[in-house]
Automatic annotation (TrEMBL):
Modified positions (N6-(pyridoxal phosphate)lysine) in chain numbering: 607
Keyword Kinase: no
UniProt-recorded Gene Ontology molecular function terms: glycogen phosphorylase activity; pyridoxal phosphate binding
Reactions catalysed: [(1->4)-alpha-D-glucosyl](n) + phosphate = [(1->4)-alpha-D-glucosyl](n-1) + alpha-D-glucose 1-phosphate
Similarity comment text for this entry: Belongs to the glycogen phosphorylase family.
Keywords, comma-separated and alphabetical: Allosteric enzyme, Pyridoxal phosphate
Protein name: Alpha-glucan family phosphorylase
Domain DUF3417 span(s) in chain numbering: 22-128
Keyword Zinc-finger: no
GO biological processes: carbohydrate metabolic process
Length: 716
């Protein structure tokens, strides 16, 4: 695999189509804007903000658009402070790309794995809306940490021309989906180039026609993500829309997108001259990549059996959900139509192909992408220990007993990219209290975080109050815009002093966003305590076809309009990474109450804990591994209840009583300076126990040790 820094030269020279030409003194601004590294470099963000503060806000922190539209560059080149920030940012980029002293280079040089990481969504930043929720953000955080660690890894995904939808909530509380045109020129992407410098176009066969795919590149620090795009003139009008929307369309679109990702993705790597020795399927969406690799080996003379064995030997598969709807399955007629030529190309017959993916669904026989992924991988994992146990139960019928007794599915618990989620104000506080800023070099090491215990409680509390005020300003500005747009006049403004509880994630029904509403009187009593006010901030998108989840949004919306809840229970529209970042960095507590054991991991509570907002959650996903009785709170019992109704009842009772008896009293128990000492102890414990272990820095190292290195070089 080629090292991304060398590829830099070519596009550095091309520049951007801009209103102004870039002054010589700031000549590398386009490069700074194009590399997603800026999203975890506060200094580079300060540079963009200084260049054009208004555009920085109005473009939603999109430096590519800012550079295209700004008229300040000439002036900026004469401003010594801007030039100084620019020089620092360029130096930082060069040092970063140079890659001296990375983990993969020094600490663990046995990373002879060159990984291609395939995912249907990547959440890198709100200005590249090709993610829907936790799965995509995890993929983005994975690639960012691979870059930090110096791991040779590239991502492969899809460029959705309209992205995922933007969410509006109407005056009736209905979710409305708005799709905006995407303008590749305004995004941090550039055409991917082959080794001889030509733009890369690959083709795949769809029923009765060829589909052409353009390949784009996103620079993510030292790594890159390649994105496939069907919006090309040579494709029919209808086919150009195949990559229009993430999770849009019916089963025909879905199978086409999965062929684009899996088959088109492998072909793109070949055209780019990349030869990974480990292929990682992030969720079953990517499983066709295995069939394409079998096809290649069969074309080179291998038998179907030998080829499948080799492909599986060098493939890692991560399963992400026990929820049945999360596992794509195609009916025989549909699958056979799309796969008509595959048996011949794979050196097998229809039965041989179907044996790799057959599953009996409750609606009949189907070709199931999760089954295919399990059959075409030897490295397999679930995303928490509990989810590993649940997945083994679900899927163990697929696996023969292993002679070494090792589980056929391992657990690699999810984490978050520290630098993308930690508030810069807290990072500075940590720097001041950690000698030599050692925590930055060993984020994954719990010992490196022990200094947090020694931060004076008042200082940590004041820093949190600062980020909380920023969150409240953001929330109130958003509420004001919402109010203007819908024309409703119920006053909506949160109070930066009140105990603030955040809940923001995809609204899938198993996450039970409305559990809190189950006893309205009790909720009112908690919220309405005049001297101990409590408020809830909700945000989240429902999948456009998920009516029950949309009804949750409606219920929360109407609750937020009631006189005695208005301003104490609010729901923000247009949830995205920006909303999540503001909330996890500013609220006091993070609430998660899924129906156990359906939350495979969850990561938003990790982001909040890292920022000193302890997790208040059902003991599902990652939380049983982290919860120690001192770093947050549990909702309900760590059991499976006899019925959904019973689970809802017990969990709601626990939610209310823990709020009443623990959270609210502890939060409002202040010392003479107004600092809640007991509460700050929980904050510190949350930071110390969650930040290192539940970072993607730890997670990607686990992938390297447990899955990538063992799989490398098994492809022959
Ligand atoms: C982190 C994150 C999530 C994950 O939330 P869960 O509570 O783990 O489901 C979802 N969406 C966005 C935008 C995120 O940043």
């Amino acid at each position: 695999m080629r090292c991304p820094p060398y590829e830099f030269e070519s596009y550095r020279l091309r520049g951007l189509a801009m209103r102004e030409s870039v002054p010589q003194r700031l000549s590398r601004l386009p490069e700074l804007a194009r590399n997603i590294l800026w999203t975890w470099r506060p200094g580079t963000q300060a540079l963009f903000s200084r260049l054009d503060p208004e555009l920085w806000e109005s473009t939603e922190h999109n430096p590519v658009r800012l550079l295209r539209e700004t008229e300040n560059l000439g002036r900026a080149a004469e401003d010594p402070a801007t030039v100084a920030l620019y020089n620092l940012a360029v130096q930082d980029l060069d040092r970063y790309l140079d890659g001296q002293g990375t983990w993969a280079g020094h600490v663990y040089p046995r990373t002879d794995a060159r990984v291609a990481y395939f995912s249907a969504e990547f959440g890198l930043h709100e200005s590249l809306p090709i993610y829907s929720g936790g799965l995509g953000v995890l993929a983005g955080d994975h690639v960012k940490s691979a870059s930090d660690l110096g791991l040779p890894l590239v991502g492969v995904g899809i460029l959705y021309a309209q992205g995922y939808f933007r969410q509006r909530i109407s005056a009736e509380g209905r979710q409305e989906e708005v799709y905006e045109p995407f303008e590749p020129e305004s995004r941090p992407i550039s055409p991917a180039l082959s080794p001889d410098g030509a733009p890369v176009i690959v083709g795949i066969a769809l029923p009765g026609r060829e589909l052409s795919l353009k390949v784009w590149k996103v620079e993510v620090g030292r790594t890159a993500i390649y994105l496939l795009d069907a919006d090309l003139q040579e494709n029919s009008e209808e086919d150009r829309l195949l990559t229009a929307r993430l999770y849009g369309g019916g089963q025909r679109t879905r199978i086409s997108q999965e062929m684009i990702l899996g088959i088109g993705g492998v072909r793109a790597l070949r055209a780019l001259g990349l030869r990974p020795n480990v292929y990682h399927m992030n969720e079953g969406h990517a499983a066709f990549l295995g069939l394409e690799r079998v096809r290649e080996l069969v074309a080179a003379g291998e038998t179907f059996e030998a080829a499948t064995e080799k492909v599986a030997g060098s493939t890692v598969f991560t399963t992400h959900t026990p929820v049945p709807a999360g596992h794509d399955a195609f009916a025989p007629d549909l699958f056979d139509e799309f796969a008509r030529d595959w048996p011949g190309e794979l050196g097998t017959d229809r039965e041989g192909l179907w044996a790799l993916g057959r599953k009996r669904e409750d609606w009949g026989e189907a070709f199931n992408m999760t089954v295919l992924a399990f059959n075409l991988s030897r490295g397999r994992n679930a995303v928490s220990k509990l989810h590993r146990d649940v997945s083994l139960d679900m899927w163990k019928y697929l696996f023969p007993e292993r002679p070494d007794g090792e589980d056929p599915i391992l657990a690699v618990t999810n984490g978050v990219h520290t630098w993308s989620w930690l508030a810069p104000e807290l990072a500075e506080l940590f720097d001041r209290h950690c000698g030599g800023r050692a925590w930055r070099r060993e984020v994954e090491n719990p010992a490196a975080w022990s200094f947090v215990a020694g931060i004076p409680s008042g200082e940590l509390w004041r820093a949190h109050e600062g980020t909380k005020r920023g969150m409240a300003r953001f929330v109130n500005a958003r509420l004001e815009l919402q109010k203007e747009r819908t024309g409703r006049d119920v006053p909506q403004e949160i109070n930066p002093e009140a105990l603030t509880i955040g809940f923001s994630r995809r609204f899938a029904t198993y996450k039970r966003a409305t559990l809190l509403l189950s006893d309205p009187e009790r909720l009112r009593a908690i919220i309405g305590g005049a001297d101990r006010p409590v408020q809830f901030v909700f945000a989240g998108k429902a999948h456009p076809a998920d009516e029950p989840a949309k009804a949750f949004i409606e219920a929360l919306y109407w609750a937020s309009e009631e006189d005695d809840l208005a301003g104490s229970l609010v729901i923000l529209e247009d949830y995205d990474m920006n909303v999540t970042r503001h909330l996890v960095q500013g609220v006091d507590v993070w609430l998660n109450n899924p129906r156990r054991p359906l939350e495979a991991s969850g990561t938003s509570g990790q982001k909040a804990s890292l920022n000193g907002a302890p997790n208040f959650s059902v003991l599902d996903g990652w939380w049983p591994e982290a919860y120690n009785g001192r770093n947050g709170w549990a909702v309900g019992e760590p059991v499976e209840y006899a019925s959904e109704e019973e689970g809802d009842r017990v969990d709601a009772e626990s939610l209310y009583s823990t709020l009443e008896n623990s959270l609210v009293p502890l939060f409002y128990d202040r010392d003479a300076e107004g600092v809640p000492l007991g509460w700050v102890r929980v904050m510190k414990e949350a930071i110390q126990t969650v930040a290192p272990t539940f970072s993607t820095q730890r997670m990607v190292q686990d992938y390297v040790h447990k899955l990538y290195v063992p799989r490398a070089n098994r492809a022959g």
